[in-house]
Amino acid sequence: MARILIVEDNRNLAHGLRTNLEFEGHRAEIASDGDAGLRRARSGEHDIVVLDLMLPELDGFRVLETLRREGHSVPVLVLTARGDEADKVRGLEGGADDYVTKPFALRELLARVAALLRRSAAPARDLSAAPVPVRFGDVELDPAVREVRRRGVPVALRPKEYDLLHALARREGRLAERGELLREVWGYHESVLSRTLDTHIGELRRKLEADPSAPRHILTVRKVGYRLAGVDGRTGAQVHGRAGSEVQDRGP
Fold first, then answer.
1. Angle between helices 106-128 and 159-170 (to 10 degrees)
2. Per-residue model confidence as pLDDT tens digits over 230-252
3. What is the H or E stretch that residue 201 is in?
4. What gap in Å lies between CA 78 and CA 60, rounded to an integer?
5. How far, in Å, CA of 40 to CA of 103, rounded?
């Protein structure tokens, strides 16, 4: 049973969603405007937030961006009538974990909620089987506690930033194609949403690289994907050496 917060100003839609989520065995709560939704989401009491964008008081974009800026990691599924590509990109780059446009099929929405709940729980099960820390440069990734430290100091990563870094580290320096990472970390298949990957890579570089404009570890293989240089995930030992010759462009 999950605890789900529905932030939606359409009363009939909100109550219909709550009824169906409760029928699935979850507990659901409704907030009818952005201010109330932000207050409740900040409480940390929910396993997922279903968030409309066009809300009174405070719009959904600002709710989402405020939550992520403050470090709240609750999964957020945006449910909105705003279906333009620019809105989707803004929502995903702002920290949404999924984006569904209205009108929507109820069974699909329930399946997406279930998938988000599985994904948010899966990393802990997967990582507990391989707790050996991974090191590259002055960074250490500790899968046992989902923590990243730089020079011994914990670095605040959003959940998807951590998942992306771990996906790269698991490959032990091998190339990860863009499509692989989008499917593995976000579950996306739409190429139009791939900008969210570039944004997360940029944030990882900003937080973990000595010079984000000339990264030494989180490298771009132009037009193909990304790789993490200088790491050996089997032993946790740092590997010294130059980046592979295939890296032609260090920007996203």
1. 60
2. 875 443 333 333 333 334 444 44
3. helix 195-208
4. 8
5. 26
